[in-house]
Specification:
heterodimer; A: mainly alpha; two-stranded antiparallel sheet; 25 helices; B: mainly alpha; 20 helices
Chain lengths: 632, 479
Amino acid sequence: MNPDCLWLLLAPPALGFLVNGLMGRRLPASITAAVALAAVGLPLAVALGFLLEMTAAPPEARVVATSLYTWLSDGDFQVRVGLLLDPLAMVMSLVVLGIGFLIHIYSVGYMEGDVGYRRFFAYMNLFVFFMLLLVLADNLVLTFCGWEGVGLCSYLLIGFWHERKSACDAGRKAFIVNRVGDFGFILGILLTITAFQTVDYGELAEIAATAPGDASPIIALMVLLIFMGAMGKSAQFPLHVWLPDAMEGPTPVSALIHGATMVNAGVYLMCRLSPLLNRCPEVLLVIAVLGLVTALYAALAALGQRDLKRILAYSTISQIGFMFVAVGSGMYALGIFHLVTHGIFKGLLFLAAGAVIHTLGGEQDLGRMGGLFREIPAVAVAFLAGLLALAGVFPLAGFFSKDAILWGGFQRFGASFWIVSLSGALLTALYCGKLFGVFFGPRRDEGPPHRPGALLIWPPAVLALGALIAGVLGLPMFAQDTLLSRFLGFASPAVASGQGHELEVIMTVFQGMVIPAFLAASAYLFVRRRRRMEELERAFPRAAAFLADGFGLDKLNALLLATPLRGAARFSARIIDNRIIDGAVNGVGWAAMRAGRLLALLQTGELRHYALSILAGAVALLGAALYAAGIF
Amino acid sequence: MAPIFQDVNLYCLLPELVLLTGAVVLLFVRGAGRGSAALPVAATTVIVALAAVPLLWGERAVGFGGMIVKDNGALLAQALLLITALVSFAAAADALPERKNNGEYYSLLLFSLVGMGIMTAAGDLLVIFLGMEILALSLYVLVGFLKVVRAGMEGAVKYFLLGSVASAVFLLGLALTYGATGSTQLVAFTAPATMPALLPAAAVLLVVGLGFKIAAPPFHMWAPDVYEGAPISVATYISVAPKIAAFVVLLRLAGESAGPGREALTGAFVFMSVAGMAVGNLAALRQTSLVRMLAYSGIAQAAYILIGLPALSAGGAAAVSFYLLVYMFMNLGAFASLAHLSRRRTGTLRIDDLAGLASRAPGHAFALAVFMIALTGIPPTGGFFAKFYVFKAGIQAGYLGVVLVAVVATVVSCFYYLRVVMVMYGEEGGAGLRGLPAGVTMLGAAIGVMVVMTILTGILPERFLQAASAAFPLLAAGM
């Protein structure tokens, strides 16, 4: 494995962005698409090459690292631009590039004829570049650069159709909510620098291993602050409010950025910092509990959505919550496993949803969808496969990862934790069942369907295949030592494993039966008894609206944050700002302007004044120098 | 004085000889009309001279009894000056009327390059003075090159008269140096003086002469009027080239000085720096004309660079040369953009005229925005690191107060730099600016290179810093 080739992963998307962004106006659409595809396809090939070599290498030699150059140095403290491809980064890069490549292919068909075709692909390539930078960075600062870069691309792509006000607002919301999280992230980085004089992941891991016991509180605070950034980017309660609105972006964007890759960056970052996390079990508990709360809450909210994409958005929030449960249980490999499977089936679901929306001419309201199986069977099969995987039905990918997460939570935090997470999983099955109504039962839309082209069908089909077989990574079952975790090779905090295998097998079989049962019941209700369910919904309008608004969290935010803030803002605007700050700032500004005017007065344009200035300056300097030298 | 003619070493003046030849040839080629050969000849000369720089690199060619020392510092400065000249050529191709004989213009510009080449490589104050006068005389004529422009003539006369005053002061300093040490060599500053009391006075007077060149207050008054009156291509050149040359001389002076002379120098640097930050930034706030704003901005930028001079031992030399490099890219870029935008206009370009530029010429608006952001000192541009290194050196050398003033001044400068960006992107319907040339022009390409370099110095700052500190190894080690 040649470390000098690592830049080959990063360069093509950057080039693709430059070519399409700068010269795209003169290129025909087909070239634009080809450039964008090549920009993701080439690094995918390189990454696969690295993967082959990496699997062949012994576990301790599975790290490729290169330091491109030093960006900043101050004494001992250095920030290098360095790339690190270890098994963790490898898995994440493959998710980004593999799913990203399929989504790029899909976009060629989906965005056809859009006036912003070139802009779209330029942004998408830029996103892939920053995402890879985030993943491959070998230190916190460089990761942060990628982190902000993907945030920027997310903002640009959510507001891609900027003539729609709702899209612009959603983009802004995403950006602002992420600022809250990133504030914590920056503080965390600064604390790391002041406490340990390094931001390099390798050196931090060493510090975590060797630092004395009294350093633990600092490490805990550091990790907590960085986790705040992860909560923003990965849409964890209560910083999740931006993600449902982010569905204003084009569907491929929802699939790539807000389903499969960027929103998982927080999970990735926490796994990156796993040596530090292992030192602070309290932080792990915080992560696990927050993840569980998010998983449960978002699953409930998903149940109440009427918009196809918003269901998927809440489902994403909920599933990422499960990933954080795994991370919080100290089972990082499991978190990554669920990240991979979720990336596959959620990407699939979004792409298939895009095809459904395309078929209905832009309709996203669930109430107007029904009986589409006969119209678009291929899409329907892919979508249903995605739903089964999401719900966690054997033998699809979601079954393996979710089952392992539930067991991991049980082992570490006990039975009550398990019961709550199981109810989260059952809720998942419920809202998955609700989506069956889209394809079965009577048709609900008018007009002829726009049948999607091949480009809209094949990428989800490939992903559906992936959803079928990705569970292999979690084999053998009932073991910590699965294929993926062996590849990743995380060190986990020691878990007191009192329970035997029998219990695990029993629980797996139980879950494996009860989840499909829930799914089937829910599907039956929402397909055969759909009218009845809708009447039920109408009978309790406030409850339905409560769920649909995500427990009114936006309103709660408005009440708890915006109203007091607005009040405070009004107070500060009227009193503090007008009277005090304005007085001071305007005073300073006025003084500056006044001084400027005085200086302008000096600038008379008269030659003798200028000459006088030179001579006066010379005499003054001379006098000062002679005085300082003690001449007089 | 040593018998210098026994030590004629033309090799150390290779770039200057190339430039001199080109300048003389230019006086005879046809410079007017369509078939003008002036620009190609001038550009070729500069490129050949530029090619001579790597030839001499690392050789430290010394000639004329130590009066000329072509060390790496001189060569780095020379490379920057030649690049500046090339960009100003690209601007001149647009700015100068075609029917005039432009051969003289390019010839004078090459003479000024010779002057600065001598100035930056001189090991003797008299030779520095010679170089300065060659430079100054060429520039006086260039400022008034378009005789029909009244402001240009006015600017030229002002520049000439004030420049003469500054030269006289510098000569006085030179005379005092000779009186104090019995020599006019730069190294004399370190030698034990026979009359030590004269040395601080001499040092201060020399700084006044050089302070005029870098437009440091209170010797800055000429700058806005001259920039505004001169052809825009000349303003582009004057805003960068003489400053680089003068700063290199200041670096040598500060590096060679010791004892009371050095204290006086430090005092003068601090004074000019603080005054420059105050005057440049405050006056720039109120400007409506873009070129005058940039003139004051240049005064402020020079003031930031001055912080590095008293802090030579704390990495100030590298910081100063890095700042000069970045300053060249961003300021040249800003002036070149201005030249590009104002080529078809008479009268000065007001900042308000830029309204809506972002939608009409997105590329140029972006370029100008990058330069403004760099001049403010915001990452990821080189402007941030230029300030960062200079401030760091200043703090390490114990000039915390000056750096605090500089930070406040930087905040103030946001107002006038970012206002340009705001007007371009936030407002609509600026007057004029129609008839911008379409397609790729020479000047457009030059601006593109400046944009790339401005950003690159922010992404790879350590590389450039190392190159810059390699140019002045003695200064970094000494003091």
